[in-house]
Write a sequence for this structure.
């Protein structure tokens, strides 16, 4: 018995301590729990606190990264003599890593990507052979050799294949009458029987064979406008062996002049089974179109991504909007405008390939629960991006090298004792990076634990890391309690605060007379205190942020950061936002409360009480007071002493003696006119809650010595009168000269002369 007592004293007084993240109190039941974030234990504390308590051995496991496979990226030239197989070319480095993750501890590594020159390409041409594509088929018949020639400028290792599609072979997509099943076109047209998808030519280096087989193809027909292209794409993606895909750049060119059916449309033909995403080619024909529905877009995206296939949609102008929307849903895809007869298909393919290959986008497989990943891209010209843009780099030419920083964090221990594997790969490329995740779920001292130790209340637990890990059904510091006994009245009394009725404040369980606080779904939120009466998430909020984002919630009260106060730490003590342009707090017309001006003068508003929509200008506002105080004149001269009490003018001799703008924070120069039409000059400024007015006093041209005198002089009458008289004389002389020029009579006879003799003729006179 004495030996047991000594061992127990050594146990409870030992210096075997565990370090955890923000762990200072009492709910962690083992060292393994302690090293997870946001848990607590009597021996679980910050490392400085443990050292101050005299702990000689501290359990503080750290994560690390091991690079398992690290082949350098390939450097070679297209015209070089070295000919490499596809699996000998490396474009991403490293290829495999192993990470040891401790909860809450981030592990970072870098990935290097470089586009290899002369990288092999497999291209499969999938064509709509419904009747509307008849003229297009003629132009595609020579595509093999022409495209082979064009692709030589990009790669010396190019293969091409061909497939065709029409529609599901059931009503209402096609006519099922015997005659229409033989020839779905009109009687004067020779068409082949309708089919869903046919692999005409697997991938080959023989461009002439491509031309020969395509030349043998015939147009078919169907009833509705949308085609069954999605069935064909699915088979091309999943039937890698029949198509002949290699682990190289894989391009799928989808050529059509119509829309597409997708999941759910099969119900029109009585087809209700979802597409199974498996290969169903028999003799190169898709045989299950009548059995499985069309695939969904999401299903296609998954299969194209899984098989590293980049899609080029070569469609006519009419259906560009539809396929551009589809492109936005399918990563690493492009859309090109196909001419009415497909005459531009080669240029379309080359342009689309260049666009797709110039962008690298990283994607990762599904992450284990509680594991997060983030990316930072370092692209050309020193451009770095984070978030979603951190996954990609654009405008990458052959030979360019870019870097990606990858950070992986675990919130807990999702797979104790097991490894998890995730894969990171550039979309559209066959290479990938394998990342093996091992989680630190236990301390090193866990390995030397003593099962059924007598120190754990007669063998009711395992003694490990200086504490007891209790067996099933036992609880307590040394496993001294049975779960069947923890709800007794005597034990519960120790878990009630101030003799209240709530056990552990309804925020925990009473275990052997001690409160063990409940865990929250959010690991950052926790209950604490002897009776679980405190928490760090029920404090006042501001702008939907706990403690306004400027403090910590401690036992339901905000402890504010420096320069903040208030129940929600939403009141900044910094008065800088309240300072007006004149250097005064709230322009001297208000009070600064929590960094915001409360204007006491109702005429003023704005963030610093400087805006006064109804106020006259400073000069006009104080003009009359300046007149009466400085010159004993103006409208207020009789009531000057009672009305103008805010300032006393300071007289200066000349305008040059007035204060200048750079001498005070806020200064206004004024020029006003009095009743005698004379100008006077003064300045107005506020300084330290006082007003300063300087007025010019100088001898002017007026009648008296004033502070303003610049009066206009009276007019000189004599020059004005002389000018008017001279003007009138000149005008009359001009009129005379004009009349003289207009005279028309003969100068030899007076036109106003009349003879004094009058002759009268007698009408009776007959001349005798």
């Amino acid at each position: 018995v004495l030996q047991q007592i000594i061992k127990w004293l050594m146990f409870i007084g030992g210096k075997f301590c565990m370090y955890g993240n923000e762990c200072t109190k009492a709910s962690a039941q083992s060292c393994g729990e302690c090293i997870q974030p946001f848990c607590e234990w009597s021996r679980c504390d910050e490392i400085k606190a443990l050292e101050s308590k005299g702990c000689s051995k501290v359990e503080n496991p750290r994560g690390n990264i091991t690079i398992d496979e690290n082949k350098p990226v390939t450097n070679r030239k297209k015209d070089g003599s070295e000919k490499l197989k596809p699996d000998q070319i490396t474009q991403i480095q490293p290829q495999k890593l192993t990470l040891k993750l401790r909860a809450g501890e981030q592990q970072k590594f870098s990935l290097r990507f470089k586009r290899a020159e002369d990288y092999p390409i497999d291209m499969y041409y999938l064509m709509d052979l419904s009747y509307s594509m008849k003229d297009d088929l003629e132009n595609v018949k020579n595509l093999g050799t022409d495209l082979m020639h064009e692709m030589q400028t990009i790669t010396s290792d190019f293969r091409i294949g061909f497939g065709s599609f029409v529609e599901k072979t059931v009503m209402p997509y096609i006519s099922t009458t015997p005659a229409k099943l033989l020839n779905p076109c009109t009687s004067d047209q020779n068409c082949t029987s309708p089919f869903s998808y046919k692999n005409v030519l697997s991938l080959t280096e023989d461009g002439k064979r491509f031309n020969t087989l395509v030349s043998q193809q015939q147009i078919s027909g169907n009833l509705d406008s949308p085609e069954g292209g999605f069935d064909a794409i699915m088979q091309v993606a999943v039937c890698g062996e029949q198509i002949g895909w290699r682990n190289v750049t894989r391009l799928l060119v989808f050529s059509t002049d119509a829309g597409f059916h997708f999941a759910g449309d099969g119900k029109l033909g009585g087809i209700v089974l979802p597409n199974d995403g498996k290969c169903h080619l028999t003799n190169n024909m898709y045989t299950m179109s009548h059995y499985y529905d069309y695939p969904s877009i999401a299903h296609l995206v998954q299969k194209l991504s899984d098989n590293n296939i980049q899609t080029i949609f070569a469609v006519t102008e009419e259906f560009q909007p539809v396929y551009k929307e589809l492109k936005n849903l399918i990563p690493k895809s492009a859309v090109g405008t196909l001419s009415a007869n497909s005459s531009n298909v080669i240029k379309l393919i080359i342009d689309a390939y260049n666009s797709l290959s110039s962008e690298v986008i990283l994607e990762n497989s599904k992450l284990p629960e509680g594991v997060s990943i983030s990316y930072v891209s370092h692209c050309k010209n020193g451009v770095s991006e984070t978030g979603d843009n951190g996954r990609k780099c654009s405008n990458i030419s052959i030979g360019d090298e870019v870097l990606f920083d990858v950070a992986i964090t675990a919130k807990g221990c999702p797979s104790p004792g097991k490894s998890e594997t995730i894969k990171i790969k550039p979309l559209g490329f066959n290479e990938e990076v394998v990342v093996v995740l091992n989680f630190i779920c236990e301390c090193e001292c866990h390995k030397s634990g003593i099962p059924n130790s007598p120190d754990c209340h007669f063998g009711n637990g395992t003694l490990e890391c200086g504490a007891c890990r209790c067996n099933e059904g036992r609880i307590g510091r040394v496993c001294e309690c049975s779960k069947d006994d923890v709800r007794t009245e005597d034990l519960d009394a120790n878990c009630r605060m101030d003799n209240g009725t709530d056990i552990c404040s309804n925020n925990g369980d009473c275990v052997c007379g001690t409160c063990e606080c409940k865990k929250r779904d959010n690991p950052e939120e926790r209950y604490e205190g002897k009776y679980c009466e405190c928490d760090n998430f029920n404090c006042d909020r501001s702008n939907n942020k706990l403690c306004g984002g400027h403090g910590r919630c401690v036992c339901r009260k905000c402890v504010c950061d420096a320069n903040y106060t208030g129940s929600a730490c939403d009141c900044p003590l910094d008065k800088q936002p309240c300072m007006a342009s004149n250097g005064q707090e709230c322009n001297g017309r208000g009070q600064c409360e929590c960094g915001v001006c409360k204007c006491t003068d109702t005429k003023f508003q704005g963030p610093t009480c400087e805006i006064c929509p109804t106020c006259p200008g400073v000069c006009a506002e104080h003009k009359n007071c300046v007149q009466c105080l400085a010159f004993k004149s103006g409208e207020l001269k009789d009531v000057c002493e009672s009305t103008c009490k805010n300032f006393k003018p300071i007289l200066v001799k000349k305008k040059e003696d007035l204060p200048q703008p750079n001498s005070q924070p806020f200064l206004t120069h004024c020029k006003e006119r009095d009743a005698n039409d004379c100008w006077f000059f003064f300045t107005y400024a506020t300084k330290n809650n006082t007003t300063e007015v300087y007025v010019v006093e100088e001898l002017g041209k007026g009648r008296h010595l004033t502070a303003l005198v610049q009066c206009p002089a009276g007019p000189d009458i004599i020059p004005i009168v002389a000018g008017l008289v001279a003007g009138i004389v000149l005008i009359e002389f001009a009129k005379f000269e004009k009349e003289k020029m207009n005279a028309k009579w003969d100068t030899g006879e007076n036109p106003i002369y009349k003879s004094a003799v009058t002759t009268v003729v007698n009408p009776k006179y007959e001349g005798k």
